[in-house]
Amino acid sequence: MTVSENRNIAIVGVGSLMSKSLAIWLASLGWNIALVSRSEKSLSAIADEVRHAQKGKSGKVVYRSADAGEPTILKAALDWCVQELGGKLDVLCYNAARVALSNIMDVTCDDLEQDFKVSAVGTLTSGQWFASGNANVDRVSDGEWPLLLVTGGLLDKQPEEYVASLSCAKAASQAVSRLFAKSLPQKANILVGMPLISGRVVSPGEEGYSQRFDADEIISAVFKPFFEDREKRSRGQEGWIVERVH
Ligand SMILES: NC(=O)c1ccc[n+]([C@@H]2O[C@H](COP(=O)([O-])OP(=O)(O)OC[C@H]3O[C@@H](n4cnc5c(N)ncnc54)[C@H](OP(=O)(O)O)[C@@H]3O)[C@@H](O)[C@H]2O)c1
């Protein structure tokens, strides 16, 4: 199956792992790409790599720093993305999370609140913003639906003591995604996809690296099928797979 060229995506939560691999793959297809996360320096370097991957294609690559855990700031950043890309989004990928060690015996209320804001509040804000007239529904009658893609793992079902705060926050954010998956198709003609990664993603050359959890491998194995399937909806949302575990 193929994926169309020249579409619009905003990725919220951008770093050196899955988000970068996703952006690089879509850049090679000529997509217009907006990148949002907190560190301007990191965004600038990643945007350069993404532009390099365009290989002659002419998609736009823009970035903006914003804290996704703050609703007003996130919505303003997403509005900016639509303006810069020159059109509504075909895909919004919510990928932000604080992936940090924390033990249930010493995690602070502040840590938990911060994680909850980045994971759950950010997902809620993004989904509601996307459904408020910011998704490109012009091709739905041709079988191509806009997609809200929310990256996750299995911590919601199998919480781990060493990432206690993230486990709690992910349980909340994945509940938000599953509720959106029930509502958004009927209410806003938006599909929801949840790529769920069952292991630790590590860069090549670093300790714990495995080919199975290589970021490029994950994009190809578990993200790409959502992009292919969102364009082949001759029977609407019927048969759409919300959760894919890798
Ligand atoms: N890495 C893993 O092993 C693993 C495993 C299973 C699931 N996941 C899920 O995958 C997603 C992350 O993907 P990734 O690990 O491959 O990382 P990534 O795509 O390389 O980057 C994630 C980026 O999110 C950004 N971020 C964190 N807090 C933010 C905030 N408050 N506002 C805006 N951006 C923020 C960070 O950049 P800034 O610091 O610049 O903001 C970070 O680099 C998360 O949903 C995570 O739960 C990861």
UniProtKB/TrEMBL annotation:
Originating organism: Aspergillus avenaceus
SUPFAM superfamilies, per database record: NAD(P)-binding Rossmann-fold domains
Protein name: NAD(P)-binding protein
InterPro entries cross-referenced by the UniProt entry: NAD(P)-bd_dom_sf (IPR036291), SDR_fam (IPR002347)
Cross-referenced PANTHER family: OS08G0476300 PROTEIN (PTHR43431:SF1), OXIDOREDUCTASE, SHORT CHAIN DEHYDROGENASE/REDUCTASE FAMILY (AFU_ORTHOLOGUE AFUA_5G14000) (PTHR43431)
